[in-house]
């Protein structure tokens, strides 16, 4: 009995050591995965205010001038599934290229696919990634709360605050869309007015030397160079 108990105790101890070793290796793997994710985040740029018509090839063509675009991931909008500006995570080849994109777009207006407003860019944050790994050593647990639980009221207030923020976001989005439509109309009118001006200038200085400018030059004995 004693020898059998000793053998059983030895097996239990070996199993415990094996479990500890497995947890240790899992922890090392989680830390390595999170470190690799952080490196990817640092070379990723968050683009906002993109036209709904923008596709991955369009983004690649626009940003390839700053370096090599490795991946483009559009972030779906589950709150407002309408024809609204979209956003995307663009991973560059290295952090230097990502910084070049941020610097250029922040200093100069950068239009992609004819959006009324220039796109906006900022460094990507951890919460923007849907495939982000768990933080090593952190465990998230969910449970149902009874009405007698002290945290029940806190959960109710949090739920109400979320609904309030969603309503405020929808209202602001509506205002932004109205401003975008107004700005698009203004830009269209400005474009048409400038086009008419160029047409008028072109009609005055015709290449066949029969325009009003040529007639005036002939009357006052002046020479006009037609380029």
From TrEMBL:
<dbReference type="InterPro" id="IPR053316">
    <property type="entry name" value="Epigenetic_reg_gene_expr"/>
</dbReference>
<protein>
    <recommendedName>
        <fullName>RRM domain-containing protein</fullName>
    </recommendedName>
</protein>
<dbReference type="InterPro" id="IPR035979">
    <property type="entry name" value="RBD_domain_sf"/>
</dbReference>
<feature type="domain" description="RRM">
    <location>
        <begin position="43"/>
        <end position="126"/>
    </location>
</feature>
<dbReference type="InterPro" id="IPR000504">
    <property type="entry name" value="RRM_dom"/>
</dbReference>
<dbReference type="Pfam" id="PF00076">
    <property type="entry name" value="RRM_1"/>
</dbReference>
<dbReference type="InterPro" id="IPR012677">
    <property type="entry name" value="Nucleotide-bd_a/b_plait_sf"/>
</dbReference>
<dbReference type="GO" id="GO:0003723">
    <property type="term" value="F:RNA binding"/>
</dbReference>
<keyword id="KW-0694">RNA-binding</keyword>
């Amino acid at each position: 009995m004693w020898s059998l108990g000793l053998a059983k105790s030895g097996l239990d101890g070996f199993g415990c050591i094996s479990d500890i070793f497995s947890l240790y290796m899992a922890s090392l793997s989680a830390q390595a995965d999170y470190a690799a994710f952080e490196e990817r985040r640092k070379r990723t740029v968050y683009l906002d205010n993109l036209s709904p018509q923008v596709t991955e090839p369009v983004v690649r063509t626009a940003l390839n001038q700053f370096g090599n675009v490795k991946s483009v991931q559009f972030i779906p909008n589950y709150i407002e599934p309408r024809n609204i500006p979209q956003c995307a995570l663009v991973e560059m080849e290295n952090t230097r290229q990502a910084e070049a994109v941020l610097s250029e777009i922040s200093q100069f207006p950068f239009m992609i696919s004819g959006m009324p407003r220039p796109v906006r860019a900022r460094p990507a944050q951890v919460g923007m990634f849907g495939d982000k790994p768990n933080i090593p050593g952190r465990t998230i647990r969910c449970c149902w709360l009874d009405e007698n639980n002290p945290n029940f009221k806190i959960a109710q207030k949090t739920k109400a605050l979320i609904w309030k923020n969603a309503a405020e976001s929808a209202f602001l989005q509506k205002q932004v869309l109205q401003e975008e439509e107004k700005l698009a109309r203004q830009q269209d009118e400005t474009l048409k007015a400038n086009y008419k001006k160029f047409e008028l200038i072109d009609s005055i200085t015709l290449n066949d030397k029969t325009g009003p400018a040529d007639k005036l030059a002939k009357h006052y004995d002046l020479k006009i160079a037609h380029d």
